[in-house]
Design goal:
Chain lengths: 257, 198
């Protein structure tokens, strides 16, 4: 390529056109490679290295010829490559750091396997109630873990179909806010995702048809409760829909005939 | 755009050109941090959509091609201003601006599709937050570049751009090519590997 450069050290338009053609061809190859595993699954392991290699070639071509690093002062290359190396180091260091942290991440199961039955009766006169509904029925007590782990103190609750159910939820966490939301079976993640746009509605979409009942978002040390009529017999889920809590902070709500 | 006569420097290199390279070096670290953040949180979203759900490889391949070709038209503009061919310079610089604007159009279309049909916004999940931050900042850089190119096109009619003062075009070209190579990395890391590694 050097032979086709101007006397001033810059490439000719013909060289620029050749580089453009190579860049276009490489992009087309990348697009083609993307679909290779559909026809040759055995080649899947080489696809990512191939993407990185082709990307590096395009990067180098633009840098050397279009940005003239091949022909200009080496000082410019020093500034640019220096920044590039620092950036690469930051990427590798951060990825390594976060990989280590992720490796140590431990999901702790519920501290006790308490089942709160429908006939459990407790005093519900204390706490920051979020409903004025009279508490004529037995109260189901449940709380969040006493640490900031994203789990409830029970992973199963039961009630009789059609009965009046009062759930008292206590936030035992240190810093985390939590709520308690009863939803149709298998929809806990959908409800949590749907609630992401409703931060001012306690992270619950008020129009979500999968939501049966919910205790509002409460802060550590607070309690709240709700009374509702148990739905028809079957299996349901309860979940905390605060963003990021739903993967581990949920349980099964069994409604018996 | 008036640059005046060349001045002597201890390095023998024009300060303005030195400055743009130092700036581009710092920009490497800026985008490096954003790319690192995207990669760290890749696959960590607790709910969808995921890259494989929303990213459209064929469409983005076309927009990548458009941006790469804009780099070609940029060097052609630079080559012409060095030769003193202002008329051809105007054609190529306007081509570059149009190709850049086309790329932005693709990005606008993509963001709109994600928000309306893909249900992905910066608030949806970690993927949405990191994706929009990274590609949004790149799009902002392209926007600045397009405005810069159009201003050069306008200045060419004032007679301010001469072969001796081609440095103004050179600096703009370096910025534009940098935006291009950042996209080369984003296209590979976010789109190709992002979807492939689903």
């Amino acid at each position: 390529m050097q032979s086709s450069a101007h006397a001033s050290g810059h490439p000719t338009p013909a060289t620029y056109a050749k580089i453009a053609s190579i860049l276009a061809v490489i992009t087309a190859i990348e697009f083609g490679i993307f679909y290779v595993p559909d026809y040759a699954p055995g080649l899947k392991s080489v696809i990512v290295p191939a993407f990185i290699l082709l990307s590096a070639v395009k990067f180098a071509l633009v840098g050397m010829f279009y940005m003239h690093l091949k022909f200009d002062s080496r000082l410019f290359s020093g500034f640019f490559v220096g920044g590039l190396l620092l950036a690469t180091t930051v990427i590798i260091a951060l990825m390594a750091l976060f990989a280590i942290v992720s490796g140590e991440r431990i999901i702790v199961a519920a501290p006790d396997d308490t089942t709160v039955d429908a006939d459990t009766t407790t005093d519900t006169t204390t706490g920051a109630d979020t409903t004025d509904t009279p508490m004529a029925a037995p109260t189901h007590e449940i709380g969040s873990a006493s640490s900031d782990e994203f789990v409830f103190t029970a992973d199963t609750m039961t009630a009789a179909a059609g009965s009046e159910v009062t759930v008292k939820f206590t936030n035992n966490a240190v810093t985390q806010q939590h709520n308690w939301v009863l939803v149709q079976d298998g929809t806990k993640d959908d409800v949590a995702t749907g609630g992401l746009a409703f931060s001012t509605d306690n992270w619950v979409n008020p129009d979500d048809p999968n939501v049966i009942a919910s205790v509002n978002l409460i802060s550590p040390g607070e309690s709240a409760q709700i009374t509702f009529t148990a739905p028809e017999a079957g299996t349901y889920q309860f979940v905390c829909t605060y963003p990021g809590h739903n993967p581990t902070m949920h349980g099964t709500f069994e409604v018996t005939p | 755009m008036e640059h005046g006569p060349e001045h002597e420097t201890t390095t023998g290199i024009d300060h303005r050109k030195m400055l743009i390279w130092v700036f581009l070096g710092s920009e490497c670290m800026f985008f490096g941090s954003l790319i690192a953040t995207y990669l760290i949180y890749y696959g960590e979203s607790v709910s969808g959509p995921t890259p494989a759900d929303v990213l459209d490889i064929p469409t983005t391949t076309v927009s990548t091609f458009v941006l790469l070709m804009s780099s070609f038209s940029m060097v052609m503009a630079y080559s012409n201003i060095r030769k003193g061919n202002v008329r051809n310079f105007r054609v190529w610089i306007m081509c570059t601006a149009i190709l850049g604007a086309t790329f932005l159009g693709f990005q606008f279309f993509e963001f709109r599709e994600f928000a309306i049909h893909g249900h992905l916004t910066p608030r949806t999940n970690l993927f949405g937050s990191t994706f929009f931050t990274l590609t949004g900042f790149h799009g902002a850089h392209v926007t600045v570049g397009v405005v810069w190119l159009i201003s050069l096109f306008g200045y060419s009619f004032k007679g301010d751009l001469t072969p001796q003062e081609g440095l103004s075009v050179d600096i703009a070209a370096l910025y534009w090519h940098f935006v291009d190579i950042v996209w080369i990395v984003i296209f590979t890391a976010v789109y190709l590997i992002g979807v492939f590694g689903k």
